[in-house]
Amino acid sequence: METAVHIENLHKSFKLGFIPKTKKILKGISLTVNQGEIFGYLGPNGAGKTTTIKCILGLIYPDQGKIELFGHHHLSLKAKAQIGFLPENPYFYDHLTASEFLYFYSQLFLIKKNEREKKIKNLIQVVGLEKWADLQLRKFSRGMLQRIGLAQALLNEPSLVLLDEPLGGLDPIGRKEIRDIIVRLKEEGKTVFLSSHILQDIEMICDRVAIIVNGEIINQGTLQDLISEKILFTEIVISGVDIKELENMGEPFSERGGRTLLRVRKEGDVERVLELLRSKKGKIHSLIPRTETLEDLFVEIVKQR
Amino acid sequence: MKIRAIAFNTFKEAIRDRILYLILFFAVVCIGFSRLLAILTVGDRVKIIKDVGLASLSLFGALMAIMIGTGLVYKEIEKKTIYTLLSKPIHRFQFLLGKFFGLVLTLFIMLLLMSIIFLGLVFFHTFKVEWHLLIAIFFIFLELCLITSVALLFSCFSTPILSSLFTLAFYLIGHTAWGLEILIKKIKSGFGKALAQILYHFLPDLENFNFKTEIVHNLPIPPKIFLYSILYGVFYTLFVLTLAVLIFRKRDFI
């Protein structure tokens, strides 16, 4: 598989404060994103996710390290022409309307005049802003700004789309719509580099992930590689049995409306619980085996650090 | 093409800024005020109108250059619009030049509006269009281009308030630096004289663009002086823009 992004030993530090003190933000990041995949870049706030993206885009210069996009130096116009970028909390020229804004950016990609109008109209439709195409961006809500942000990122039909926290601050419907667009991009053969701390979304759509904590990549690989499929515990919701009888089989987690949520760690204990229920004529409402989630892995890694 | 796109966007942004119209309003009031001064003056009334009018054009033009020049680049950085812009296939110098030309276009339009009002007022008194006044206005425009480049330079690394103060200082020093020439002649040789000489060579001399008196009083100006002033303006502006590009190229957008 060909490489879309190749980062090797990336270091970046900033001098902060009145009496400048050096703070290391990235401490030797190395990662590879393959063409055509959705790559999740995962980390807590302040881990260095946005700094990495800014280095890729040339908004800040790394102290050390190498960045290549499709085999080109990341600052070359050839590389930049293949990128689409949506920043976190996007803010655009609020004196322009949505159409004017996309028109302005299309000029920077040297898109031909006769193609511009068609492309802009199509993109506005893709992100669902047809009704607001002639509204000034200053009147846009956060969700609408996110959509127009995504439209500008797709103007040049990029091979690589970098999205910095694209789902933050959106309502569930907005999140689903953006998620659907991201999946569609993958289907069209584009590579998506997605930075987020919303684990549920990353887990749902990403092929591979890298976890960054304190400027270092702690783990990276496919979700299957990172998350074990073994059952961690089984959650059983039961009723009609005295909890005291279940004490040595599992931990009663919560009780509501006469129902008890029991967390059972050993597989043998699940059988014992079921047998007890049968003999006491109790009821079983649900039984869900829980495998490890990305959230479990993430919390564990962050705690270790 | 890319520079042009950024320049037109900058122009659009600038002309939608209310502060510009406020300054334009005061400029028009001031040009109109010259009529009142002329009534109160004994002697050549038209000369007073021309004098005050050209001075208003120069002063309010400089104020516009400072206000919009120092604000627009900073605004791009502060509001982070620069993130998406610089992620597009453009060089940083193209961004800066686009901003510069956009601002210059804005100033050109504003100066044009003020000039039409000014020439109209003069026409009202003399019943002829005094085209030669355009020479003085052309040099005011050259000066405004230089001030814009200085405002851009400061806004590459400083906040709008500090950039405005620095640019205003540049403007004031530029119009008073000629005093150093007299000082050099008057003081005896030594450290003081050497310092004054160094300062004289490095500080800008914006009086090179001041042809108001000569034009108003119809005094002859040798073409050599015109050429010198044009070259001075062009090269100084290019020098400041190059400096701005060098600083801007190295900047991290945190």
Question: Features of this protein?
Answer:
heterodimer, A: 305 residues, alpha/beta, Rossmann fold, Alpha-Beta Plaits, 2 domains, 6-stranded mixed beta sheet, 4-stranded antiparallel beta sheet, 10 helices, 14 strands, 33% helix, globular, B: 254 residues, mainly alpha, 11 helices, 81% helix
Strand content of chain B: under 5%
Mean pLDDT of chain A: 86
CATH fold annotation of the largest domain in chain A: Rossmann fold
Return Rg of chain B in Å.
Answer: 20 Å
The biggest beta sheet of chain A is recorded as: 6 strands, mixed
Helix content of chain B: over 70%
Helical percent range of chain A?
25-40%
Number of strands of chain A: 14
When the domains of chain A are counted, the total is: 2
Count the E strands of chain B. 0
List the helices and strands and how they pair.
The complex is a heterodimer of chains A (305) and B (254).
Chain A: E1 3-16, E2 21-34, E3 38-42, H1 49-57, E4 64-69, E5 72-73, H2 77-80, E6 83-86, H3 98-108, H4 113-126, H5 142-154, E7 160-164, H6 172-187, E8 191-196, H7 199-205, E9 208-213, E10 216-222, H8 223-226, E11 231-239, E12 251-256, E13 259-264, H9 267-279, E14 283-291, H10 294-304
Parallel strand pairs in A: 3-8, 3-9, 6-7, 7-8
Antiparallel strand pairs in A: 1-2, 1-4, 4-5, 9-10, 11-13, 11-14, 12-13
Chain B: H1 2-15, H2 18-40, H3 45-78, H4 81-86, H5 92-126, H6 133-155, H7 160-176, H8 178-186, H9 191-202, H10 212-216, H11 223-250
Helix pairs in contact in B: 1-5, 2-3, 2-5, 3-5, 3-6, 3-7, 5-6, 5-11, 6-7, 6-11, 8-9
